[in-house]
Specification:
The complex is a heterodimer of chains A (307) and B (352).
Chain A lengths: L1 H53 L2 E4 L3 E6 L2 H8 L1 H34 L3 H11 L6 H12 L4 H8 L13 H25 L3 H9 L4 H29 L3 H6 L7 H11 L3 H28 L8
Antiparallel strand pairs in A: 1-2
Chain B lengths: L1 E12 L2 E12 L3 E5 L6 H9 L6 E6 L2 E2 L10 E4 L11 H11 L4 H14 L15 H13 L5 E5 L7 H18 L2 E6 L2 H7 L2 E6 L2 E6 L1 H6 L4 H6 L4 E11 L3 E6 L2 E6 L7 E6 L5 E3 L6 E10 L3 E8 L2 E8 L13 E5 L6 E2 L3
Helix pairs in contact in B: 2-3, 2-4, 3-4
The chains are: A mainly alpha (307), B alpha+beta (352).
């Protein structure tokens, strides 16, 4: 009994030493990040700081940005039902887009990882194809499909399913469709990555212990791909919440989103401080949403293992 | 009465038969090793028994019931994988409890059985750890507990020790045999390590190119190999050619090994050449002896308890492993001539 305990302890110690060595190496790898980090600092973080400062300045009709400090820009946004409505709609569209992308992408990613050889490359290319077409052209493609005498409405009327055209275009629905179309490749790639990292013998072990395919999926595969789902969701959500072209073409003025508001303030009304405040609020809300989302995803899976 | 039966089991990949009409009967509680070089079909056979691969012919029967058409989750087999295959997102406790939860075992019983299983593999107190916080040996023991806790009909071990270092591998293999005997579970152990197979098995099935060459106890496999492949694969052998000088009644021949005459039982005809195998540890060397095969000591290698002598006969080399308590290696000088002697009964006739 004593000998076993010692053996276990010895193995523990060896294991901890191994871990220590690893953390030492991590320091060197920071140097490798330096080029990327400096670009990030100068072209992203610095402008963000200016944006933040501008958002606390008053609006001057003559010069745009005034000289006085004020909280007026934020107060204006928070107290106005219209602006709050736009914020809510933006987040809602982004969330629905993200969820739809997860649901649509998971089976696709799952299937692609099952296929071997050349077929896999073709399927991956097919998934990436939306990214190869210009955003504007792709959106007008959807306009042709969804407009009142577009392909979808005409087909439905011909079939006698509806009498007058459905309002498909210039709705939140059409915006979500357009966004899912362009953003789902990110989700597929991200989920594929985490599916491929699962050791096939882990799935066999689950079957061997008595789990059928469905149980194995929910108990083993899905939990192990949560990191991939999360990474994909962060990408899709942040791209969706800040997208401009797709809501502008497929939503129009009826479906105003935050990026459109910002654009209006900065380019048309030339109220840069208010535009900055809207932009900053968007970043703030998006970050909060991502944090809550990650908490929800990992709550049930303490110590989610990324193998 | 055999418990696990493989009857004419066939597996084909891309029109190549990787398992050819395999037949094997395993008794209840027996530990049988599948031993063979990589690509011999041993893992494929194990995967067919576990249900991860379909059989392309024949049947697999466990406890009187055919199982080869059942999906893996209905076969009641416990498997231990080469790379442990623990669920990385579950604690040690949840890993072991997984199979019991699926069987709808009451919670209190799950708790008790998991703790018992962990105690059996000497990992009590590790319940709350995650697999990545365990060493390889500990992970493999969790894997063993997870397979055994469901009380499977058959335990399947797929090269379970090959990822461990040498010292731990020896400890683990003793532990596995201890537990296997204690539980009394019918076990198949796949390995390519012959020492491992010889050490732990009740019987060994030596496999080569998709078929079983010989199934026998470790002692019988080593001392009485039935095929050429088994002779060469298990242990080390010297190949030596003898010339039949005289034949007697009852399959007795007088054979000359370059002038070293021995009478042994083998089916030979006069004036033919016969190949024999001879294990290195069966050869003795003497500086002076009444008879023997005259050879030159090319090299000697001190290996601790024994010394290995490389012996040269014309253009042929032999190895002889001699215990240092029998022969002090200092007495032999490289380059000197010695007499190699062996008991004729130790010669293994080749099967062509």
């Amino acid at each position: 009994m004593q000998a076993e305990l010692e053996m276990n302890q010895e193995q523990d110690i060896q294991f901890k030493q191994m871990k220590k060595k690893k953390s030492k190496k991590r320091l060197d790898s920071w140097l490798l990040l330096l080029p990327a980090l400096s670009i990030f600092l100068f072209f992203f973080l610095l402008p963000l700081v200016f944006l933040f400062i501008t958002s606390f300045k008053n609006f001057d009709a003559a010069t745009g940005i005034g000289h006085d400090w004020t909280l007026q820009n934020y107060a204006k946004f928070i107290t106005d039902q219209f602006y709050l409505g736009v914020l809510w709609r933006t987040v809602k569209i982004a969330l629905i887009t993200t969820l739809a992308a997860v649901v649509i992408s998971y089976p696709v990613a799952y299937q692609i990882t099952k296929v071997r050889g050349r077929m896999k490359n073709y399927l991956t290319l097919l998934v990436l194809s939306p990214l190869l077409i210009s955003m504007v052209i792709r959106c007008y493609g959807w306009v042709i499909l969804l407009s009142n005498n577009g392909v979808v409405n005409n087909a439905l009327m011909k079939l006698g399913l509806i009498d007058k055209p459905l309002t498909l275009l210039y709705t939140e629905f059409s915006v979500v469709i357009g966004m899912v179309h362009v953003l789902f490749p990110y989700m597929v790639l991200s989920i594929m990555g985490s599916l491929e990292r699962i050791d096939p013998s882990i799935i066999r072990a689950s079957q061997n212990l008595g789990a059928g395919p469905i149980r194995t999926f929910f108990s083993v595969i899905l939990p192990l791909t949560l990191p991939g789902i999360f990474a994909g969701s962060v990408m899709v959500f942040s791209l969706a919440v800040s997208s401009f072209v797709t809501p502008a073409i497929l939503g129009g003025p009826q479906v105003k989103v935050m990026s459109f508001l910002t654009y209006e303030q900065v380019s048309t009304i030339l109220n840069w401080p208010f535009g900055s405040a809207i932009g900053f609020l968007l970043i703030f809300i998006a970050t909060i949403t991502i944090i809550i989302y990650s908490k929800l995803l990992t709550k049930s899976e303490k110590g989610v293992a990324i193998q | 009465m055999s418990y696990l039966c493989l009857e004419n089991v066939v597996k084909t990949f891309n029109k190549t038969e990787v398992v050819k009409k395999m037949n094997l009967e395993i008794k209840k509680g027996e530990l049988v090793s599948f031993l063979g070089p990589s690509g011999c079909g041993k893992t494929t056979t194990l995967n067919m028994i576990a249900g991860f691969l379909d059989v392309d012919g024949g049947s697999i029967v466990v406890d009187g019931k055919p199982v080869h058409l059942l999906p893996p989750n209905k076969r009641e087999m416990g498997m231990v994988f080469q790379n442990y295959a623990l669920f990385p997102h579950m604690t040690v406790f949840d890993n072991v409890a997984y199979g019991l939860k699926l069987r709808k075992v009451p919670k209190s019983e799950i708790n008790q059985r998991v703790l018992e299983a962990l105690e059996m593999v000497r990992l009590s107190g590790y319940e709350k750890r995650y697999p990545k916080e365990l060493s390889g040996g500990q992970q493999q023991r969790v894997s063993l507990a997870r397979a055994l806790v469901i009380k499977p009909k058959v335990l399947l071990l797929d090269e379970p020790l090959s990822n461990l270092d040498a010292k731990l591998r020896q400890e683990m293999r003793e532990e596995i045999v201890d537990i296997q005997k204690k539980v009394g579970i019918t076990t198949i152990f796949v390995t390519h390590d012959q020492e491992e197979a010889l050490a732990i098995s009740d019987r060994i099935a030596v496999m080569y190119e998709g078929r079983i060459e010989q199934v026998d106890t470790p002692v019988a496999i080593y001392n009485h190999p039935q095929t050429d492949f088994v002779s060469r694969f298990i242990g080390e052998v010297n190949q030596i050619q003898g010339h039949v000088v005289e034949t007697f009644s009852g399959n007795q021949c007088k054979v000359s090994f370059d002038g070293y005459h021995q009478v042994l039982s083998c089916p030979g005809t006069k004036d033919t050449l016969i190949d024999f195998y001879l294990r290195p540890e069966k050869i003795q060397i003497y500086q002076e002896h009444s008879e023997g095969l005259r050879v030159r000591v090319e090299r000697k290698m001190f290996l601790g308890a024994k010394t290995r002598y490389i012996l040269q006969l014309k253009d042929q080399q032999f190895i002889a492993d001699i215990s240092n308590t029998v022969l002090n290696p200092d007495q032999i000088i490289e380059g000197q001539d010695v007499l190699a002697v062996w008991n004729p009964e130790e010669l293994l006739a080749t099967k062509k």
